[in-house]
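Fill in residues.
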């Protein structure tokens, strides 16, 4: 009988182990940048991201305020968070650009301001943000109702903000692009965070331009990225039959090799187009 009791105890302990959730990952400390930086031995980079050819179709979005609720509410148009903003000269605003292949120790020192995404009236401000690898992203709401926010892409998380003015923080410990979206049915609520270990990254301005004043000499790959405004899949609530999540098409991206020389200014131009999805 004692042998059977021991076996039952072992099985119970084993089940308990399988149900135990893994511990939260320990946030990495901010990556040091600039420990081998030499200001006199740098060049400049002044570039532009341009859109070439016809613009992509922008899916029209519309929804009630609370798609998860059964109550019937007016359907209103919702902004497409991926809409392309192209200047008369073709410059693409709101694109991410960054250098790959650079040693963070040789990059300029970086003491960035705290990164914060604020959601108000179910929209993020700003919709594009850059963050140093290992730093924390602050998520804050100014709406008088709770939000659930999801991180997808380079980082995966779910954060609940029960009421306004109660910010939550999440350390982003993987380089890349993180999509932050609503998990509460507000499918048009999107923002993006570019995470890198060095400060040579940017969001293009209204003319599609970006500039870095102190770039260590060398050959690098320059990347550009912008989300796609075309919806390719809709997900509906089984209870309300309303759309609660959407999937956009593959993002537009391109890259080129550049060389930066000491005391010189490199002026690259990156072109995105409907045929440039990589």
């Amino acid at each position: 009988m004692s042998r059977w009791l021991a076996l039952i105890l072992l099985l119970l302990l084993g089940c308990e182990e399988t149900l135990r959730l893994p511990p939260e990952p320990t946030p990495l400390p901010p990556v040091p940048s600039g420990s081998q930086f030499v200001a006199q031995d740098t060049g400049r980079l002044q570039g532009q991201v341009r859109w070439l050819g016809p613009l992509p179709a922008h899916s029209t979005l519309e929804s009630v305020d609370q798609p998860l609720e059964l109550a019937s509410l007016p359907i209103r148009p919702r902004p497409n968070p991926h809409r392309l903003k192209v200047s008369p000269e073709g410059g693409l605003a709101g694109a991410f650009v960054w250098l790959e292949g650079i040693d963070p120790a040789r990059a300029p020192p970086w003491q960035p301001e705290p990164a914060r995404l604020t959601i108000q009236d179910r929209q993020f401000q700003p919709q594009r943000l850059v963050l140093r690898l290992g730093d924390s992203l602050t998520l804050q709401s100014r709406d008088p109702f709770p939000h659930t926010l999801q991180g997808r892409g380079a980082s995966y998380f779910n954060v609940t903000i029960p009421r306004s003015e109660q910010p939550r923080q999440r350390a982003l410990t993987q380089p890349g692009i993180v999509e932050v979206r609503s998990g509460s049915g507000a499918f048009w609520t999107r923002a993006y965070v570019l995470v890198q270990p060095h400060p040579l990254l940017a969001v293009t301005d209204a003319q599609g331009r970006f500039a870095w004043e102190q770039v260590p000499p060398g050959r690098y790959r320059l990347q550009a990225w912008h989300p796609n405004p075309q919806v390719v899949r809709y997900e509906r609530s089984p209870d309300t039959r309303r759309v609660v999540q959407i999937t956009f098409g593959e993002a537009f991206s391109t890259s080129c090799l550049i060389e930066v020389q000491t005391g010189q200014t490199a002026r690259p131009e990156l072109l995105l187009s409907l045929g440039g999805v990589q």
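The chain has one domain: 42-276.
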